[in-house]
Amino acid sequence: MKRRLVVIAVAMCLVAGTALGAEEKLDEIFDKLEASAAKVKNMAGDMTQSMDMGGMMMTQKGKMQLLVPDEFRLEMTMEVMGQKMQVLAVRAGKTMYTETRGTPAGTMVMKMDIEQMEKQTGQAPGGMGGGGGQMMGGNPREELKHLRGLAGLKYLGTEKIGDVDTYVFEVPWKSMVGENTAALQAQQPGGMQLNFDKVKIYLGQKHGITRKTLMFTPEGKEVFSVLMENVKINQGIDPKAFAYTPPAGVEVIDMTEMASQVMKGAPAPAPSAP
Asked: So where are the chain's domains?
């Protein structure tokens, strides 16, 4: 009996030691990544995003540019049921516009007041880790800090994405969206179910930039991915790339209130024209 208790005690110490070692490894990695990301002033690269829409894989490709801390430009092209659509998202400071061309209704433009959203919600849009903030014109270092603090974050090891060495992490999807799950679900078209469970995030070892993000269902099926390739860091970007004027005659739909309510986890009101 005494021998069994000794074995159990030793086993418990080994488990505790392993957990402590993993925590130290996480801290060591994130300290390094945050120091590297702090040196990123601008970046540009090719982005590919794919999502399983009810068994049909939708893929869009384009180019992304980011100027720290709050300027961003994303140009994407996708095909929906034979219809080619072009999406342009531009953020300059505290205003973000999204222009979509090729829809059945013609060109659509939506606007979000980032400053107003921050006042209403107490948080910055896109601060969900895994490139969320980078895709909203955020600061890569702040994104790493946010990711580091998420509950359930696990370090899985290293992997190459092309010729880029990355650190691989896994985090529960609910940890990333917090209390917003129900509100996000309510915004899905046609009652489409958000069936995400885990998220894998691949961070470049050299600069801390998100190189790939994968989302999985509880059954382990990959249903969403974002891949960044041909990334260029601190090679200069023309500030004019972040200027935007809506096309003449196109109504601008203000999504600020709706997006704020989604961030707060509340039912969203209808969008409004300015």
From this structure: 2-264
Cα 35 to Cα 12: distance, rounded to the nearest angstrom: 35
Q: Residue 186 pLDDT more than 70?
A: no
Domain 2-264 is found in CATH 2.50.20.10: yes
Report residue 179's pLDDT band, with 50, 70 and 90 as the boundaries. low
Per-residue pLDDT at 97: 94
- Long-range contacts (CB closer than 8 Å, 24 or more residues apart) made by 66-69: 66/42, 66/134, 66/137, 66/237, 67/41, 67/42, 67/137, 67/237, 67/239, 67/242, 68/40, 68/41, 68/42, 68/139, 68/140, 69/137, 69/138, 69/139
**Mean pLDDT of all residues in 120-140:** 57
Q: Which residue has the tokens 């696990």?
A: 154
